[in-house]
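Work Package 4 report. The design task specified in the project plan requires that, given a folded chain encoded as structure tokens, an amino acid be chosen for each position. We show below one input record used in the internal validation round.
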């Protein structure tokens, strides 16, 4: 192996090159129209932005067009029949060619169920017949020559540190293996397992979090995985390491841990590094790991994965954050446009349709913004904003954008709303999802159905359309924080201990 070090202000970045080729129902939210005029009521009684047009409700909308040319995001050949990145083939939570079961439980329609090593809540990805996921395994072993243990207060992660109160789990004293797994999609058997790094973590994490909370991404040739502070790695699909990169150590708010996934567009890999230290966004050469550009960011900790989208010949990197939603030119990192108004702790990944990107947050405030990709400069509080709401929005779960309808939850509660993506007009709002006890998982959709998973293992399946209609409620035996993955007739659900493959049996 040959090693290269890229020097950046305050951070040493090590890249190693391999020898292979490579988440209670409130009152109706009042929309905030961009022209500050009053909202009007639709026939259903739901408030709607003043520029909206009232339409007749449709109980069923068509399955999205599966032509890759209609998808404004990078979609490698074969991707529409896989789930090759965090939010699926179209980066919207929709599987255009999926048709998973409507009903299941522990003894019905379970194709297979396998226990996973270690712990992780990162959503798996799929390329053809292989599943790829991240996990962190506590070896239980102290490293040789380890320094004396820290005092109890420091080890616990509690107390008030340099940037505020910490609520994390105790800092581990034993080594963890940060692993990337490849499983056979038909049998659940392990194809290969690679230990990317073995290390004692330098901090704890949120009690419901972990050290393996992001998703890998692939173009069908190379596989990219980020363990954040514990390295970014590129493998080929046979599990052979191509390169690795160390961007330093994150100082996350309250010691909650890390979770943003990398975003891939052709030969560019983009990583956001928002934390309590010096935040930045970096674009890497996906083939070599070499840094192409880096931009500083005036942001504190976020967990939102960036979205890369093509618009009018320019690839834009959209990042959702607390201070600003920003768009960068993928070619050189130049800031194209920005918009303030988001709430705290952004986690949800943006979605896009017809030249508009939808960004949302729901912690200590709400924000659901529809923003034009054609914007330039600062569009905060201007009439360039297509529409927005400031009293609804998800905290953890990313929305799903299916045909012309945008579905999103409220905070971490099992409460669902649906709006027309183009006008912001509510089709239904703040509808309770039966059996829910909070949610972290993002929403997924296929074959005219919406799949929403609770942390208690309940999955509600709804009919896609402008009316709230529950088709099924399904229960598994363990909690689920990872998002549902749909490939063909198969649904994958990663639980606290097991990975389930669900299909008609």
């Amino acid at each position: 192996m040959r090693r290269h070090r890229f020097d950046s202000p305050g951070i040493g970045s090590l890249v190693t090159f391999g020898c292979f080729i490579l988440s209670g129902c409130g009152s109706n939210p009042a929309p905030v129209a961009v022209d500050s005029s009053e909202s009007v009521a639709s026939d259903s009684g739901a408030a709607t932005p003043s520029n909206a047009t009232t339409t007749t409700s449709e109980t069923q909308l068509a399955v999205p067009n599966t032509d890759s040319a209609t998808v404004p995001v990078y979609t490698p050949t074969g991707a529409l029949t896989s789930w090759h990145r965090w939010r699926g083939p179209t980066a919207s939570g929709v599987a255009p060619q999926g048709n998973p079961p409507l009903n299941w439980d522990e003894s019905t329609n379970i194709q297979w169920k396998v226990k996973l090593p270690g712990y992780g809540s990162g959503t798996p990805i799929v390329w053809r017949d292989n599943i790829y996921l991240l996990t962190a395994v506590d070896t239980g072993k102290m490293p040789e020559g380890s320094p004396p243990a820290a005092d109890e207060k420091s080890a616990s992660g509690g107390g008030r540190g340099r940037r505020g109160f910490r609520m994390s789990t105790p800092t581990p004293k034993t080594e963890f293996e940060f692993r990337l797994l490849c499983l056979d999609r038909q049998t659940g058997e392990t194809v290969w397992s690679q230990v990317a790094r073995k290390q004692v973590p330098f901090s704890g994490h949120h009690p419901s979090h972990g050290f393996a909370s992001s998703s890998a991404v692939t173009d069908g040739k190379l596989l990219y995985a980020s363990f954040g502070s514990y390295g970014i790695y590129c493998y080929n699909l046979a599990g052979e390491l191509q390169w690795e990169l160390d961007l330093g150590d994150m100082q996350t708010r309250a010691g909650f841990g890390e979770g943003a996934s990398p975003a891939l567009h052709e030969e560019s890999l983009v990583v956001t590094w928002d934390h309590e230290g010096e935040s930045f966004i970096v674009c890497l050469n996906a083939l070599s790991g070499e840094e192409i550009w880096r931009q500083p960011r005036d942001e504190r900790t976020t967990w939102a994965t960036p979205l890369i989208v093509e618009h009018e010949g320019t690839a834009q990197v959209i990042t959702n954050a607390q201070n600003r939603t920003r768009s960068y030119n993928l070619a050189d990192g130049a800031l194209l446009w920005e918009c303030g108004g988001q709430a705290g702790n952004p986690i949800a990944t943006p979605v896009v349709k017809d030249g508009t990107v939808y960004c949302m947050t729901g912690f200590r405030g709400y924000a659901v913004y529809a923003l034009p990709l054609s914007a330039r400069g600062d569009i905060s509080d201007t009439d360039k904003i297509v529409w927005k709401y400031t009293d609804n929005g998800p905290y953890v779960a990313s929305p799903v954008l299916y045909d012309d309808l945008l579905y999103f939850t409220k905070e971490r509660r099992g409460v669902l709303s649906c709006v027309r993506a183009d006008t912001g007009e509510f089709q239904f709002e703040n509808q309770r999802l039966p059996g829910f006890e909070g949610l972290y998982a993002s929403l997924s959709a296929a074959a005219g159905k919406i799949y929403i998973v609770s942390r208690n293992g309940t999955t509600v399946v709804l009919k896609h359309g402008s009316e709230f209609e529950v088709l099924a409620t399904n229960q598994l035996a363990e909690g689920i924080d990872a998002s549902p993955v749909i490939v063909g007739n198969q649904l994958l659900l990663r639980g606290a201990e097991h990975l389930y493959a669900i299909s008609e049996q």
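The CA atoms of residues 138 and 176 lie 4 Å apart. Validation will be extended to a larger panel in the next phase.
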